[in-house]
Amino acid sequence: MTRCATSMPIRTQGAQRASGQGGIILMEVLAAAAILAVAALALIAVRERCIQREGASARLLAATRIAEQLVAEVAAEATIVPTTEEGEVKGLPGCVYRREVELRSDAESAQLFRIHVAVSYSLSGREQTLDLEKWVYRSRGDATSQ
User: Are residues 119 and 129 in contact, defined by beta-carbon separation less than 8 angstroms?
Assistant: First the structure.
């Protein structure tokens, strides 16, 4: 006659956690929450950096357009006169410009002018300057040659 071994009660995973290992689940949840918090902070920092760079790009674009306009005003004149001019840019607080027009070559048949514009502005407490230079060639008696 064979005897059957006494069977021991088998515990399932749910029964094990119910019997005292529930703290592991709590630790897993806390670790996941900490990881999510760090990731969220990183995303906020990236977003702030993008906003700052967008503002910097907008200021640089505005300064470029102003410099191009200041150069075009001189280049379009029928007679270019060497001058130096400084002033504030209307519509952009804290933005100033300096425009220099120099006669670099004055031959009998033609003139060569250098137009240099510097637009300065403040960005995040630091002074930034955009320089733009254009050379204009004019034949004597021809106001449209460039």
Answer: yes
Instruction: Please count the residues of the chain.
Output: 146
Partners of 128 in the β-ladder: 121
11 Cβ contact partners less than 8 Å away, ≥ 6 residues apart: 19
Q: What angle do CA 55, 67, 90 make, to 5 degrees?
A: 70
Report how far apart the first and last C-alpha atoms of the chain are (Å, whole number).
117
Cβ partners under 8 Å of residue 19, min gap 6: 11
Q: What is the pTM of this model?
A: 0.66
For residues 54 and 122, give the distance between their C-alpha atoms in angstroms, rounded to a whole number: 15
Domain boundaries, the chain: 22-139
How far is the C-alpha of 128 from the C-alpha of 120, rounded, in Å? 6
Low-confidence ranges of the chain (pLDDT < 50): 143, 145
Q: CA 90, 129, 135, 87: dihedral to nearest 10 degrees?
A: 30
Q: How many CB atoms lie within 10 A of CB 75?
A: 16
Comparing CA positions, the residue from 141, 135, 54, 60 lying closest to residue 101 is 135
